[in-house]
């Protein structure tokens, strides 16, 4: 019988504490308007997945080491992100992700995600070719709705990290963290 994966490894950026607080407030303001019933994700779990590196029964130390080495070479300056829409993504009808997303205010984030993907590929690591849709999952709930504009939530991305998510648990272990550097140029 195949073993069930227990770990998900991914590269991500997280909102700073102020932005995470504003996101949490926005969810509460939207609750009556949109009909959210479920509890929102805890502020410390809010993130934007940049690259999913795989699901594993046991986390492969060599993959963690190679990924850390590859992305440490990316030298880019901090950049601003603007999230200005909420939408429900497809999923199980009773467990749909409700997410914060945006448009033009996420171009620098998309460029950054491409730069990280290039670094991973140059290091010989597999990079899924799925279209990147920048978003922050707010909660999982029933129902759904079309994109809805919201007052923009903005912050400056100053770092990124490699995260080991324990599947089925509410545990994230950081495996690496790297600052974005002023004056950095794409690698």
From TrEMBL:
Protein family membership: Belongs to the 2H phosphoesterase superfamily. ThpR family.
General function of this protein: Hydrolyzes RNA 2',3'-cyclic phosphodiester to an RNA 2'-phosphomonoester.
Active site annotation, chain numbering: 47, 135
Placement of sequence motif HXTX 2: 135-138
One MF term in the entry's GO annotations: RNA 2',3'-cyclic 3'-phosphodiesterase activity
Keywords assigned by UniProt, alphabetized: Hydrolase, Ligase
Reactions it catalyzes: a 3'-end 2',3'-cyclophospho-ribonucleotide-RNA + H2O = a 3'-end 2'-phospho-ribonucleotide-RNA + H(+)
NCBIfam families found in the cross-reference section: 2_5_ligase
First-tier enzyme category under EC: hydrolase
Organism: Ralstonia solanacearum (strain Po82)
Chain ranges for the short sequence motif HXTX 1 as given in the UniProt record: 47-50
This protein's name: RNA 2',3'-cyclic phosphodiesterase
EC number from the UniProt entry: 3.1.4.58
